[in-house]
Amino acid sequence: MDFIGIDLGTTYSAISTIDQYGKPVVLxxxxxxxxxxxxxxxxxxxxxxxxxxxxxxxxxxxxxALFFKRYMGHADYSYTAAGKEYSATDxxxxxxxxxxGRAEAILGHPVSKAVITVPAYFNDFQRTSTIExxxxxxxxVLAILNEPxxxxxxxxxxxxxxxxxxVYDLGGGTFDVTVLQIDHGELKVIATGxxxxxxxxxxxxxxxxxxxxxxxxxxxxxxxxxxEGLADLTLAVENLKKQLSDRNSxxxxxxxxxxxxxxxxxxxxxxxxxxxxxxxxxxICNNILKEAGLGWQDLDGALxxxxxxRMPMVYEWVAGMTxxxxxxxxxxxxxxxxxxxxxxxxxxxxxxxxxxxxGPEDPRLQLADSVxxxxxxxxxxxxxxxxxxxxxxxxxxxxxxxxxxxxxDRRQLKFRTRQGGKNLQTVYLTQxxxxxxDKCLVVGKYLFHGIEHVKNPEGAVIEIGYSYDANGxxxxxxxxxxxxxxxxxxxxxxxxxxxxLYEAPRNTFEPMSVxxxxxxxxxxxxxxxxxxxxxxxxxxxxxxxxxSFSITVQGFADSYKxxxxxxxxxxxxxxxxxxxxxxxxxxRVGYGNxxxxxxxxxRLLMExxxxxxxxxxLTDGEWSRKNQAIxxxxxxxxxxxxxxxxxxxxxxxxxxxxxxxxxxxxIFTSADNLSAAFSTIxxxxxTGLKR
Length: 691
Ligand code: AMP
Hints:
single chain; alpha+beta; Nucleotidyltransferase, domain 5; Substrate Binding Domain Of DNAk, Chain A, domain 1; Rossmann fold
């Protein structure tokens, strides 16, 4: 069979296939080794060693690339050797190519297809990087499979009875938890999560610190300053830890700076040192159960997976946590790789038993025949949006985590278009649960091309669709709702500098050109109305994000007056407001309401510096040329001008709504509440990307 399953681990990897009896098996080399260290070493002249050969170089004090899986998809990680830089994808592809070669040597024939497992929490970057690494190693990657799901497949394949289980997967560098339901070959993942910086290595690190402290106390030397000594200690400590899984105490010998010491470490001592790590795993499990709406009593048991669950303390801890003895029957080191082989065989349609001698009566084979797997993703997918008050960027979730994959969800966004403009919308893809953008990861940038201009001043409605495919890899699509036309979506490189995300939104949309026109009719002189109006209007200007607009102030009553040109400097507009406040009773524009200012404002806005045109009207009276005003407003709106109309006193509510762009922008209020009305429209106009 030309397929393999690969458990690409942080510390160790394993390869598997389906043997001639239809049984999933981990491949062992001629020395009987089934696990391959996830290690790569480069000689100064470009020779590359991988696997055990690379790890062996540690004992010669050589620098060996280890734990690079932790940096998969990290753009800023690189490992430098012999003057060359290697990304985690480069290193993984070297390791995968080693694993492919090893499988071919053991099986005696070429291998071209593989299912590769990844931690359930792996994000889009990490998954696509893994696929890329596989491709570069000459493998056709049939699927990317979540590690705990793979382990559960191995567990479930041998069992006819159903149940709800928690997979507790503590590996070398990662901790994964998955809750799933198994029912007669049907495997449904309910929830998943974990911590990608918690694993066996952290137990090792605690032991290293402990021994280094002792060595320092005894010799005065800090072994952590001695690269070679530390490399030896790292190897010795992992050995010591493993020994402590079988016995109550073990001895470690440490050498540095010509000094040599021997220390005995007891299992109890080790367990005390590292207890906090188990506490950490428990709180992760609690969170995941909570998210799934389950309690410990709802589980039939926990399945231990990953090399680190060989530590007796883990077994005891999980037994205590669940109130039940952990489930057995799978090999913690091999379950993941075996699950990958089973899925690879399903994918290549060489269902178990097809070539086996077990025959159709073998219950295991029948179960394998009918095994169906449904998985979920541990990250929500969202987009960068502007908060409803326009003050910051937020994460707006589109696909919630723990939804069965493959899955697609859609969200409609408004996007202001320009006549004859390029109308390109940028969408940033996020992964994370919090609305706070700094707690999420921006994982992609997409350009939506071909948005058609719409006259609706609210903008075009764009529907973004996000999908997770069965591998948990993300894709993005777009559609313009007005035309029903699919948009071309282009994935582009993420900006190097995303620090603007953490600042107040400024340039999310074109700067606004604002005309603020104020009723100066006689009634405005009554009871400080003009004072209140101008104060509120000043507040409005102050609430517009700095640098996002230019503004001009106009007056009207029986006639219309243009007091200033569009200015970016808000102080000029404010000064005009104060002039209006002072001079209203001098009747510069008359006393009545005969003027319809919209036509003039429209004309002015068409010459404005930006095409994001806004007209704000404040009035306290009933206009005599209402119909003309409504017609003028319709024409202005058709040209993309957004109109807000705030009225008080004897203004006409219905009329305000008619001339404004939508009901939320036609506000009737009292003179004392003008500030609140202005705040509402300031917010409305400052919001870039609306849900
Ligand atoms: P994995 O990533 O699942 O291969 O797990 C590797 C981790 O398991 C490494 O940190 C190993 O040190 C650890 N490990 C393997 N065997 C044992 C053992 N017998 N006792 C304690 N830890 C172990």
